[in-house]
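Final report, results section. Input specification for complex C-07:
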Amino acid sequence: MRKVLMVATVLSAMAIPALASDAGLIKVSKGNVQIERNGAKMAAPVGASVQASDVITTGADGSAGITFTDNSLVSVGPNTVFAIDKYRFDSTTHAGEFEGSLKKGRLAAISGKMVKASPESMKIRTPSAIMGVRGTEFVVQVDEEKK
Amino acid sequence: MNLFAVFLLAVLLASFVRAPEKAPELFAVLPALDGHIGAIVVKAPGSEKVVNEAYATVSIHGSSQTNGSLSEAQVREMFGSTLEALPGTPASFMLYFLEGSDELTPESKAELDKVFSELKRRPLPDIVVIGHTDTVGTLDFNDKLSLARAQRMREMLIGLGLPAERIQAAGRGKRELLIPTEDNVSEERNRRVEISVR
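Structure output:
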Protein backbone atom coordinates (compact mmCIF):
# COMPACT_ATOMS: atom_id res chain seq x y z
CA MET A 1 0.00 0.00 0.00
CA ARG A 2 3.00 2.28 0.32
CA LYS A 3 2.98 2.74 -3.42
CA VAL A 4 -0.68 3.73 -3.35
CA LEU A 5 -0.09 6.24 -0.61
CA MET A 6 2.76 7.78 -2.55
CA VAL A 7 0.59 8.21 -5.59
CA ALA A 8 -2.17 9.64 -3.45
CA THR A 9 0.24 12.18 -2.02
CA VAL A 10 1.43 13.18 -5.46
CA LEU A 11 -2.14 13.54 -6.66
CA SER A 12 -3.54 15.40 -3.69
CA ALA A 13 -0.61 17.79 -3.40
CA MET A 14 -1.85 19.58 -6.49
CA ALA A 15 -5.47 18.63 -6.40
CA ILE A 16 -7.81 21.26 -7.72
CA PRO A 17 -11.45 20.22 -7.79
CA ALA A 18 -12.54 19.14 -11.26
CA LEU A 19 -16.09 20.27 -11.93
CA ALA A 20 -18.53 18.61 -14.27
CA SER A 21 -18.63 21.86 -16.28
CA ASP A 22 -14.91 21.67 -16.96
CA ALA A 23 -14.01 21.15 -20.59
CA GLY A 24 -10.44 20.22 -19.82
CA LEU A 25 -7.34 20.59 -17.71
CA ILE A 26 -4.06 22.39 -18.29
CA LYS A 27 -1.45 19.62 -18.32
CA VAL A 28 1.53 21.57 -19.60
CA SER A 29 2.26 25.23 -18.86
CA LYS A 30 5.54 26.94 -19.72
CA GLY A 31 6.38 30.62 -19.49
CA ASN A 32 3.58 33.17 -19.55
CA VAL A 33 0.21 31.41 -19.93
CA GLN A 34 -3.10 33.00 -18.98
CA ILE A 35 -6.78 32.18 -19.06
CA GLU A 36 -9.30 34.93 -19.70
CA ARG A 37 -12.67 34.12 -18.16
CA ASN A 38 -15.60 36.53 -17.87
CA GLY A 39 -13.29 39.44 -18.59
CA ALA A 40 -10.80 38.53 -15.86
CA LYS A 41 -7.30 37.26 -16.56
CA MET A 42 -5.70 34.62 -14.40
CA ALA A 43 -2.55 32.55 -14.47
CA ALA A 44 -2.93 29.07 -15.96
CA PRO A 45 -0.61 26.70 -14.11
CA VAL A 46 -0.63 22.93 -14.57
CA GLY A 47 -3.86 21.68 -13.01
CA ALA A 48 -5.97 24.74 -13.84
CA SER A 49 -9.34 23.87 -15.34
CA VAL A 50 -10.43 25.08 -18.75
CA GLN A 51 -14.06 25.87 -19.53
CA ALA A 52 -16.13 26.75 -22.57
CA SER A 53 -15.76 30.49 -23.40
CA ASP A 54 -12.27 30.66 -21.91
CA VAL A 55 -9.56 32.35 -23.93
CA ILE A 56 -6.03 30.98 -23.57
CA THR A 57 -3.24 33.49 -24.20
CA THR A 58 0.50 32.97 -24.16
CA GLY A 59 3.44 35.36 -24.11
CA ALA A 60 6.60 35.28 -26.22
CA ASP A 61 8.04 32.53 -23.99
CA GLY A 62 4.76 30.71 -23.39
CA SER A 63 3.27 27.39 -24.41
CA ALA A 64 0.51 25.26 -22.92
CA GLY A 65 -1.09 21.85 -23.34
CA ILE A 66 -4.70 20.98 -22.53
CA THR A 67 -6.40 17.60 -22.20
CA PHE A 68 -10.12 17.86 -22.93
CA THR A 69 -12.72 15.54 -21.39
CA ASP A 70 -13.15 13.63 -24.67
CA ASN A 71 -9.36 13.04 -24.75
CA SER A 72 -8.74 15.70 -27.40
CA LEU A 73 -5.26 17.09 -26.84
CA VAL A 74 -4.60 20.70 -27.79
CA SER A 75 -1.43 22.74 -27.38
CA VAL A 76 -0.68 26.37 -28.11
CA GLY A 77 2.70 27.91 -28.80
CA PRO A 78 4.15 31.37 -28.08
CA ASN A 79 2.26 34.64 -28.75
CA THR A 80 -1.00 32.80 -29.20
CA VAL A 81 -4.62 33.68 -28.57
CA PHE A 82 -6.96 30.67 -28.63
CA ALA A 83 -10.63 30.94 -27.67
CA ILE A 84 -12.77 27.95 -26.74
CA ASP A 85 -16.06 29.10 -28.23
CA LYS A 86 -18.10 25.96 -27.56
CA TYR A 87 -17.46 22.69 -25.81
CA ARG A 88 -19.69 19.85 -24.79
CA PHE A 89 -19.16 16.11 -24.63
CA ASP A 90 -21.47 13.29 -23.60
CA SER A 91 -19.34 10.55 -22.05
CA THR A 92 -22.05 7.92 -22.66
CA THR A 93 -22.85 8.55 -26.35
CA HIS A 94 -19.63 10.39 -27.29
CA ALA A 95 -21.74 13.04 -29.00
CA GLY A 96 -20.28 16.50 -28.68
CA GLU A 97 -19.21 19.78 -30.11
CA PHE A 98 -15.88 21.54 -29.92
CA GLU A 99 -15.42 24.93 -31.56
CA GLY A 100 -12.29 26.96 -31.01
CA SER A 101 -10.87 30.10 -32.60
CA LEU A 102 -7.19 30.63 -33.20
CA LYS A 103 -6.94 34.42 -33.39
CA LYS A 104 -3.18 34.38 -33.74
CA GLY A 105 -0.21 32.15 -33.05
CA ARG A 106 0.23 28.42 -33.29
CA LEU A 107 -1.84 25.42 -32.34
CA ALA A 108 -1.29 21.67 -32.48
CA ALA A 109 -3.97 19.10 -31.74
CA ILE A 110 -4.82 15.43 -31.64
CA SER A 111 -8.54 14.87 -31.93
CA GLY A 112 -10.41 12.79 -29.36
CA LYS A 113 -13.48 10.65 -28.88
CA MET A 114 -16.09 13.04 -30.26
CA VAL A 115 -14.37 13.28 -33.65
CA LYS A 116 -14.06 9.50 -33.73
CA ALA A 117 -17.81 9.27 -33.11
CA SER A 118 -18.73 12.05 -35.54
CA PRO A 119 -16.15 13.60 -37.87
CA GLU A 120 -16.07 17.39 -38.02
CA SER A 121 -17.71 17.77 -34.59
CA MET A 122 -14.43 19.61 -33.83
CA LYS A 123 -13.87 22.88 -35.66
CA ILE A 124 -11.14 25.48 -35.51
CA ARG A 125 -11.81 28.97 -36.81
CA THR A 126 -9.13 31.35 -37.98
CA PRO A 127 -9.55 34.97 -39.12
CA SER A 128 -10.19 33.80 -42.71
CA ALA A 129 -11.29 30.16 -42.60
CA ILE A 130 -12.98 27.40 -40.68
CA MET A 131 -11.40 23.98 -40.41
CA GLY A 132 -13.35 20.78 -39.78
CA VAL A 133 -11.39 17.98 -38.13
CA ARG A 134 -11.95 14.50 -39.53
CA GLY A 135 -9.15 12.96 -37.60
CA THR A 136 -6.12 12.88 -35.50
CA GLU A 137 -3.13 15.15 -35.64
CA PHE A 138 -2.80 18.57 -37.19
CA VAL A 139 -1.26 22.02 -36.75
CA VAL A 140 -2.52 25.52 -37.51
CA GLN A 141 -0.68 28.81 -37.71
CA VAL A 142 -2.05 32.34 -37.92
CA ASP A 143 0.70 34.87 -38.52
CA GLU A 144 0.42 38.35 -37.17
CA GLU A 145 -0.34 41.09 -39.68
CA LYS A 146 2.47 42.11 -41.96
CA LYS A 147 4.24 45.33 -40.99
CA MET B 1 -1.44 75.50 -47.85
CA ASN B 2 -4.57 75.74 -49.88
CA LEU B 3 -7.48 73.32 -49.75
CA PHE B 4 -6.47 71.60 -52.97
CA ALA B 5 -3.04 70.77 -51.59
CA VAL B 6 -4.61 69.31 -48.45
CA PHE B 7 -6.91 67.23 -50.62
CA LEU B 8 -3.98 65.95 -52.72
CA LEU B 9 -2.06 65.08 -49.60
CA ALA B 10 -5.04 63.18 -48.20
CA VAL B 11 -5.40 61.17 -51.43
CA LEU B 12 -1.69 60.43 -51.39
CA LEU B 13 -1.78 59.24 -47.78
CA ALA B 14 -4.88 57.12 -48.34
CA SER B 15 -3.12 55.23 -51.11
CA PHE B 16 -0.50 54.12 -48.60
CA VAL B 17 -2.83 53.32 -45.75
CA ARG B 18 -4.78 50.43 -47.24
CA ALA B 19 -6.86 48.06 -45.20
CA PRO B 20 -4.43 45.67 -43.49
CA GLU B 21 -4.05 42.42 -45.36
CA LYS B 22 -5.40 39.36 -43.59
CA ALA B 23 -2.70 37.37 -41.88
CA PRO B 24 -1.30 34.40 -43.76
CA GLU B 25 -2.67 31.19 -42.32
CA LEU B 26 -1.42 27.66 -42.57
CA PHE B 27 -3.09 24.31 -41.86
CA ALA B 28 -1.22 21.00 -41.96
CA VAL B 29 -1.94 17.34 -41.28
CA LEU B 30 0.72 15.44 -39.32
CA PRO B 31 1.14 11.69 -38.95
CA ALA B 32 -0.02 10.59 -35.50
CA LEU B 33 2.26 8.67 -33.13
CA ASP B 34 0.81 5.37 -34.35
CA GLY B 35 1.37 6.44 -37.96
CA HIS B 36 -2.30 7.18 -38.62
CA ILE B 37 -2.85 10.02 -41.06
CA GLY B 38 -6.08 11.91 -40.58
CA ALA B 39 -7.83 14.59 -42.56
CA ILE B 40 -8.92 18.18 -42.18
CA VAL B 41 -11.30 20.27 -44.29
CA VAL B 42 -10.44 23.93 -44.68
CA LYS B 43 -13.36 26.11 -45.73
CA ALA B 44 -12.90 29.72 -46.73
CA PRO B 45 -15.24 31.93 -48.77
CA GLY B 46 -15.52 30.28 -52.20
CA SER B 47 -13.22 27.38 -51.44
CA GLU B 48 -13.15 24.06 -49.64
CA LYS B 49 -9.98 22.01 -49.46
CA VAL B 50 -9.47 18.57 -47.97
CA VAL B 51 -5.99 17.80 -46.65
CA ASN B 52 -5.40 14.10 -46.01
CA GLU B 53 -1.71 13.40 -46.48
CA ALA B 54 1.14 13.60 -44.01
CA TYR B 55 2.72 17.09 -43.97
CA ALA B 56 0.31 18.33 -46.65
CA THR B 57 -0.84 21.92 -46.12
CA VAL B 58 -3.33 24.57 -47.13
CA SER B 59 -2.15 28.15 -46.83
CA ILE B 60 -4.32 31.20 -47.04
CA HIS B 61 -2.94 34.54 -48.07
CA GLY B 62 -5.48 37.26 -48.66
CA SER B 63 -8.14 35.64 -50.82
CA SER B 64 -5.93 32.92 -52.30
CA GLN B 65 -5.78 29.40 -50.93
CA THR B 66 -3.01 27.09 -52.04
CA ASN B 67 -2.16 23.48 -51.40
CA GLY B 68 1.40 22.65 -50.49
CA SER B 69 3.52 20.59 -48.19
CA LEU B 70 6.15 20.96 -45.50
CA SER B 71 9.12 18.81 -44.61
CA GLU B 72 9.30 17.23 -41.18
CA ALA B 73 12.16 19.62 -40.37
CA GLN B 74 10.07 22.66 -41.35
CA VAL B 75 7.23 21.48 -39.13
CA ARG B 76 9.65 21.11 -36.25
CA GLU B 77 11.09 24.55 -36.89
CA MET B 78 7.69 26.26 -37.04
CA PHE B 79 5.82 24.26 -34.41
CA GLY B 80 8.60 22.85 -32.20
CA SER B 81 7.63 24.41 -28.87
CA THR B 82 3.93 24.01 -29.69
CA LEU B 83 4.22 20.28 -30.39
CA GLU B 84 6.40 19.86 -27.30
CA ALA B 85 3.55 21.23 -25.19
CA LEU B 86 1.07 18.57 -26.35
CA PRO B 87 0.01 16.52 -23.31
CA GLY B 88 0.81 12.80 -23.29
CA THR B 89 -1.66 10.47 -24.97
CA PRO B 90 -4.10 9.02 -22.43
CA ALA B 91 -3.33 5.44 -21.42
CA SER B 92 -6.10 2.89 -21.08
CA PHE B 93 -6.30 -0.15 -18.77
CA MET B 94 -8.95 -2.88 -18.78
CA LEU B 95 -10.14 -4.46 -15.54
CA TYR B 96 -12.46 -7.42 -14.99
CA PHE B 97 -14.39 -8.45 -11.91
CA LEU B 98 -14.84 -12.00 -10.66
CA GLU B 99 -18.35 -13.00 -11.65
CA GLY B 100 -20.99 -11.65 -9.31
CA SER B 101 -18.44 -9.97 -7.06
CA ASP B 102 -16.72 -6.70 -6.31
CA GLU B 103 -13.35 -8.38 -6.42
CA LEU B 104 -11.03 -8.03 -9.36
CA THR B 105 -9.65 -11.08 -11.13
CA PRO B 106 -5.98 -11.82 -10.27
CA GLU B 107 -4.91 -10.55 -13.72
CA SER B 108 -6.80 -7.31 -13.13
CA LYS B 109 -5.11 -6.79 -9.78
CA ALA B 110 -1.79 -6.84 -11.66
CA GLU B 111 -3.27 -4.43 -14.20
CA LEU B 112 -4.23 -2.08 -11.36
CA ASP B 113 -0.54 -1.92 -10.38
CA LYS B 114 0.18 -0.68 -13.90
CA VAL B 115 -2.43 2.03 -13.43
CA PHE B 116 -0.53 3.28 -10.40
CA SER B 117 2.81 3.32 -12.20
CA GLU B 118 1.17 5.24 -15.04
CA LEU B 119 -0.18 7.79 -12.56
CA LYS B 120 3.33 8.39 -11.28
CA ARG B 121 4.69 9.03 -14.76
CA ARG B 122 2.35 11.95 -15.39
CA PRO B 123 2.70 15.52 -14.11
CA LEU B 124 -0.90 15.99 -13.01
CA PRO B 125 -2.88 12.88 -13.73
CA ASP B 126 -6.63 12.58 -13.77
CA ILE B 127 -8.65 9.43 -14.26
CA VAL B 128 -11.84 8.51 -16.07
CA VAL B 129 -13.36 5.18 -15.09
CA ILE B 130 -15.52 3.94 -17.96
CA GLY B 131 -17.93 1.05 -17.49
CA HIS B 132 -18.89 -1.31 -20.33
CA THR B 133 -21.45 -4.11 -20.49
CA ASP B 134 -22.32 -7.01 -22.78
CA THR B 135 -25.42 -6.81 -24.98
CA VAL B 136 -27.90 -8.49 -22.62
CA GLY B 137 -30.68 -5.98 -21.94
CA THR B 138 -31.81 -2.63 -23.32
CA LEU B 139 -29.57 0.32 -24.20
CA ASP B 140 -30.92 2.31 -21.25
CA PHE B 141 -30.51 -0.57 -18.79
CA ASN B 142 -26.89 -1.09 -19.86
CA ASP B 143 -26.07 2.65 -19.78
CA LYS B 144 -27.14 2.64 -16.13
CA LEU B 145 -25.47 -0.67 -15.28
CA SER B 146 -22.16 0.42 -16.83
CA LEU B 147 -22.23 3.71 -14.94
CA ALA B 148 -22.96 1.85 -11.70
CA ARG B 149 -19.95 -0.42 -12.33
CA ALA B 150 -17.75 2.58 -13.10
CA GLN B 151 -18.90 4.34 -9.93
CA ARG B 152 -18.12 1.23 -7.89
CA MET B 153 -14.62 1.12 -9.36
CA ARG B 154 -14.25 4.85 -8.66
CA GLU B 155 -15.15 4.28 -5.01
CA MET B 156 -12.59 1.50 -4.90
CA LEU B 157 -9.86 3.81 -6.20
CA ILE B 158 -10.84 6.47 -3.68
CA GLY B 159 -10.64 3.75 -1.01
CA LEU B 160 -7.08 3.08 -2.18
CA GLY B 161 -6.24 6.71 -1.46
CA LEU B 162 -6.75 8.51 -4.76
CA PRO B 163 -8.40 11.96 -4.47
CA ALA B 164 -12.09 11.85 -5.41
CA GLU B 165 -11.96 15.15 -7.32
CA ARG B 166 -9.46 13.71 -9.80
CA ILE B 167 -11.61 10.71 -10.77
CA GLN B 168 -14.66 10.84 -13.01
CA ALA B 169 -16.98 7.96 -13.81
CA ALA B 170 -18.69 7.34 -17.15
CA GLY B 171 -20.89 4.56 -18.52
CA ARG B 172 -20.75 3.49 -22.16
CA GLY B 173 -23.27 0.68 -21.79
CA LYS B 174 -23.18 -1.72 -24.75
CA ARG B 175 -22.03 0.97 -27.18
CA GLU B 176 -18.36 -0.03 -27.32
CA LEU B 177 -18.03 -3.82 -27.35
CA LEU B 178 -14.57 -5.32 -26.98
CA ILE B 179 -15.83 -8.55 -28.56
CA PRO B 180 -18.49 -7.76 -31.17
CA THR B 181 -21.62 -9.85 -30.63
CA GLU B 182 -25.26 -9.90 -31.64
CA ASP B 183 -27.72 -8.21 -29.32
CA ASN B 184 -28.62 -10.08 -26.11
CA VAL B 185 -25.45 -12.15 -25.94
CA SER B 186 -23.77 -12.77 -22.59
CA GLU B 187 -20.02 -12.22 -23.07
CA GLU B 188 -17.82 -11.83 -20.03
CA ARG B 189 -15.03 -10.05 -21.92
CA ASN B 190 -17.45 -7.24 -22.70
CA ARG B 191 -18.34 -6.77 -19.01
CA ARG B 192 -15.37 -4.67 -18.16
CA VAL B 193 -14.24 -1.42 -16.61
CA GLU B 194 -11.74 0.74 -18.41
CA ILE B 195 -9.46 3.09 -16.54
CA SER B 196 -8.22 5.97 -18.64
CA VAL B 197 -5.26 7.82 -17.18
CA ARG B 198 -4.42 11.20 -18.70
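Helices of chain B lie at 3-16, 72-84, 106-121, 139-159. The domain at 91-197 of chain B is CATH 3.30.1330.60 (60s Ribosomal Protein L30; Chain: A;). This concludes the modelling results for the funded period.
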